[in-house]
Automatic annotation (TrEMBL):
Pfam families: Aldo_ket_red (PF00248). Its EC number is 1.1.1.-. InterPro entries: Aldo-Keto_reductase, NAD(P)_OxRdtase_dom_sf, NADP_OxRdtase_dom. Residues 17-312 form the NADP-dependent oxidoreductase domain. This is Aldo/keto reductase. Keywords: Oxidoreductase. Signal peptide: none annotated.
Length: 333
């Protein structure tokens, strides 16, 4: 696995990272031993960049990574995220269907301190503000995170799901190393809302989450029948009704190009994301899929293949919003 620079602040990561959320939440019941085995296999394959967040579980996913990397801390780059509110019982705080976010400096400090404990480390390589709180000036939130950098508890800072305007404001307070956004052949909004252009202008790295469209771009998901009742895709607009049927046609077009190249649809999709100069963090809890994903790093695309993919999956091709209305309300600030 080759190493690439993430941004211009000195951070280096594997060309493909591993999104760890699904090992603990969101896609139905998980198995800790399977998660630990997958994390170890990722290290064997040269993956060094691991993505988690305090809200994944909540807290369970950070604890999993902390357990996995005992004695291996010098071999991994750990990134986590802060910025959601929780109840006194440790559950995600909600207002109806909308998760509650916060950029309150005291809350952010408390969250990072908790992440340090759960990850069993003295310093976190990269901390993102998970969502932007429009009620708290971004300058104050980034100032609090910058204090933690100066204290040696965080190495680098990032934002997740932020507007170009907010990225500029934050970067002016303390240099950002990375911005993490959803980006794939299924979701190309960052090409058109000035986010991708802004990070490139400012020398900020870009981390692409859900580069396989939450499993759509594997070509294996044809209906919801085999999804666990708690799998959030059962409630995701892009997986419902007519949207599902329309999006399956998009996947069919990508699959045709993959078959012509002799690779899997998932590998083609990951090769495309990598070719854009961003770092994808596909998530999986299974070694088999991890190995398939990592193999995509070696795939190069011709100009003709890139043009074919642009035609097959242009901006706006996916039907439906990418989240429920409650989650959509947390984006784009």
């Amino acid at each position: 696995m080759r190493t690439v620079s993430l941004g211009s602040q000195g951070m280096a990561v594997s060309a493909q990272g591993l999104g760890c959320m699904g090992m603990s939440t969101t896609y139905g019941p998980s198995d800790e031993q399977e998660g630990l085995a997958t994390l170890m296999r990722a290290l064997d394959l040269g993956v060094t960049f691991f993505d988690t967040a305090e809200v994944y579980g909540p807290f369970m996913n950070e604890e999993l990574l902390g357990k996995a990397f005992i004695g291996k801390r010098d071999k991994v780059i750990l990134s986590t995220k802060a910025g959601f509110r929780f109840t006194e019982h440790g559950k995600l705080a909600m207002e109806g269907e909308k998760p509650l976010v916060t950029g309150d400096p005291s809350h952010i400090r408390k969250s990072v301190e908790g992440s340090l404990r759960r990850l069993r480390t003295d310093v976190i390589d990269l901390v993102y503000l998970h969502r932007i709180d429009p009620a708290t000036p971004i300058e104050g939130t980034i100032g609090a995170l910058a204090d933690l950098v100066h204290e040696g508890k965080i190495r680098y800072l990032g934002l997740s799901e932020a507007s170009a305007k907010t990225i500029r404001k934050a970067h002016a307070v303390h240099p950002l190393t990375a911005v993490q956004m959803e980006y794939s052949l299924f979701e190309r909004g960052v090409e058109h809302n000035d986010v991708l252009a802004t990070v490139r202008e400012l020398g900020i790295g870009f981390v692409s989450y859900s580069p396989l469209g939450r499993g759509f771009l594997t070509g294996a998901l044809k209906n919801l029948d085999n999804l666990h009742p708690t799998d959030f895709r059962r409630f995701d607009p892009r997986f419902l009704g007519e949207n599902l049927q329309s999006n399956l046609l998009l996947v069919d077009r990508i699959t045709e190009i993959a078959e012509a190249k002799g690779v899997m649809p998932s590998q083609l999709a990951l090769a495309w994301v990598t070719s854009t100069g961003t770092v994808p963090i596909p998530g999986t809890r299974r070694i088999r899929y991890l190995e398939e994903n990592v193999a995509a790093v070696a795939i190069t695309l011709t100009q003709d293949e890139m043009k074919a993919l642009d035609a097959a999956a242009p901006f706006g091709a996916a039907a439906g919003e990418r989240y429920s209305s409650g989650m959509m309300a947390t984006l784009g600030h």
